[in-house]
Amino acid sequence: MAERIYIFDTTLRDGEQAPGISLNQREKLEIAEQLARLEVDIIEAGFPITSPGEFEAVKAIAKNVKGPVICALARTDRRDIDCAWEAIMFAERPLIHTFLSTSRYHMEYQLKKTPKQVVEMTKEAVSYAKKYTENVEFSAMDATRSDPEFLYQVYAEAIKAGATIINVPDTVGYAVPDEFAALVKGIMENVPGIEEVVVSVHCHNDLGLAVANSLAAARVGARQIECAINGLGERAGNASLEEIVMIINTRKDALNMTTGVNTREIFQTSRLASMLTGYVVQPNKAVVGDNAFAHESGIHQDGVLKHRSTYEIMRPEDVGLAESEIYLGKHSGRHALKTKLEEMGFYLDDKGLERAFVRFKELASKKKEITVKDLEAIALDEIRTLEELFQLEYMQSSSGTGAIPIAAVKLSREGRSYEATATGDGQVDAVCKAVQKATKVKAKLVAYQVQAITKGLDAMGDVTIKLELDGHEVVGRGVSPDIIEASARAYINAINRAVQKGLLEKKKLARKAKTTARKPGAAKPAPRKSKSTKK
């Protein structure tokens, strides 16, 4: 009988720690609901103590998402644990996940604690968390660079204190498969009470071995794998959920394992995470990349046409990937759009649906064929922009041979309008400078990327922009059949994410923006006289 592997998804916690990602409450809830449809076992919803916004997002997930266990992260600190419990107490099945470093490097240089103190802190934290909930997970951070004998001692004390899940993290992605498997096997053989708990692994991808290490650990007894959609996470990311699941699903003959994941929701989950985080999935990404089921070689094409199994070890439909079809046209109404979006898993409120419908009609007037990907892009863009501080009302741009590119934008914020015009080296440069003038936010453009969502000259454009503000990076994304408009939307999205991350103070931002909110033709306010230092 195949061994059951539990899938612990950390997209909303570790995944969101990737540089530039900042999800708002609505976006996190949208991803969590999709993860529930994916049928993961555990959703690590976030790290509540880090900010009020994070706390509210985790609380919203705990209240609204049904099915998976809902987990919150906490350091071995009573305030952290209290906060984590307050955020997840309404979940059907809450889990508190507490962690503490055990490697010499971390204990000596970061924690400045002795091994004895670390053991006591572990016992105290797990016991305290246990007062709130039966389900408690303990992680020994940087386990792969920790002394194995000390690890055994820490895990044994965590189990005695009531931990139900013991997690072995390769925090810095240092291990190789045989080495990591040996570490997990040693834990399985030397920690008293280990047979009564679930052994979990959490591998980072710094050396590109996160998936291989996770599966190597599962082969020697680990029964929970912590991973993220599209491999999102700090630095090089985490083990990729879709790869873990599809390897287990495809190679049952070699691994004799199974998961409870609904694989047909994988592609939709990947797309949702990509659009909302702004992290584009590389075309040759395993399982969910655009080229994962594409065949360019004549020999490969010939084989697939004769029998798909010649060059495909997975079926596209197994991960929820189907050919785009025409579903709606310019004569379709709101109800038809609402019904189709809900069939695709998008549940917009009245305001979001109205905005999506307007954009759908605009697109339908420009394109003959409206595809699933077009509708998906519109819905995801509305989910992303609905709670934003600044929203794009309109933009205009012009350019030509020998002419100076110029762009004008009108933004809205809390019922007020902000307009600006700017010139640039090109239309994209001009519209981004216009947005910068309208918002009064100075930022450095670090990266700009554009790709087509569908095929053809009338394809929707998908623009990703990375900005740097005061040493911090933020990623913004926008879609439109007009690349200049998509660029404006992406730039605005990045600025709004900076606000969400607290990089810009709302009051300061509003004060600066007031100067752009004057009515046309209104006289400029008289300059304030500076106060003299003389009496």
Task: Summarize the topology.
Blueprint: E1 3-4, E2 6-9, H1 25-38, E3 42-46, H2 52-64, E4 69-75, H3 78-88, E5 94-101, H4 104-111, H5 115-130, E6 136-141, H6 148-161, E7 165-170, H7 177-190, E8 198-203, H8 210-219, E9 224-227, H9 241-250, H10 252-255, E10 257-258, H11 266-277, H12 298-306, H13 334-343, H14 350-364, H15 372-385, E11 391-400, E12 403-413, E13 416-423, H16 427-439, E14 444-452, E15 461-469, E16 472-480, H17 483-500, H18 506-513
Parallel strand pairs: 1-10, 2-3, 2-9, 3-4, 4-5, 5-6, 6-7, 7-8, 8-9
Antiparallel strand pairs: 11-12, 12-13, 14-15, 15-16
Helix pairs in contact: 1-2, 1-11, 2-3, 5-6, 6-7, 7-8, 14-15, 16-17
Polypeptide structure, described:
The chain is α/β, with parallel strands linked by helices and 535 residues long. It has helices spanning 25-38, 52-64, 78-88, 104-111, 115-130, 148-161, 177-190, 210-219, 241-250, 252-255, 266-277, 298-306, 334-343, 350-364, 372-385, 427-439, 483-500, 506-513; strands spanning 3-4, 6-9, 42-46, 69-75, 94-101, 136-141, 165-170, 198-203, 224-227, 257-258, 391-400, 403-413, 416-423, 444-452, 461-469, 472-480. α1 packs antiparallel against α11 (266-277) and α2 crosses α3.
